[in-house]
User: What shape does this take?
Amino acid sequence: MSATTSRRLINSTAIVSLIFAVCLSIYWWQLGVFNDLESFQTYLLAAGLIGPLLFILVQIIQVVIPIIPGGISTAVGVLLFGPWWGFLYNYVGISIGSFINFWLARRYGKPFILHIISEATYDKYIGYTKNQQKFDWFFAIAIVMPVAPDDVLCLLAGLTQMSWVKYFWIIILGKPITIAAYSFALVYGVQWLTNLF
Assistant: This one.
């Protein structure tokens, strides 16, 4: 399968996922789950571990196969599970997905990466990997920046000489900052908008 075909497949998967999400939302709406946020959270709580595990799985998939924008899924986690549990589930799912990306890129190299991202995006960032020491610092800083292309950089890191240990600690220590920024910006943003209107 060519890189172009696989990217089209990913885009098609994103559309199918969106349709599934809409259908699921309609089903939940008919159940009355969307009457208010508390009803929805109660519904998820009644599902036991299934709700959190499914959400973590979705986060892993969206990191490896970018079918949902990361900021949106992170925000959904906070809305569904609250700021603390939402943060934890986001952290676990995104970190596991980031480790998988690094492993896949290291094992399968550039051809695999081009199945996930366009060649233009690859060319835009690959230059940063020429100097390993500079890339390590750039990568660490980018991981804690909410607007950085984390998933792309995680893939490119797999092509470098960065050790698993260094990569692990950058993700483990850096990801919470980004996730917390998204999570609490959402919580306080919603509160501010609620008070405003």
Observations:
- The CA atoms of residues 44 and 50 lie 8 Å apart.
- The mean pLDDT is 79.
- Residues 70-116 form the longest helix (47 residues).
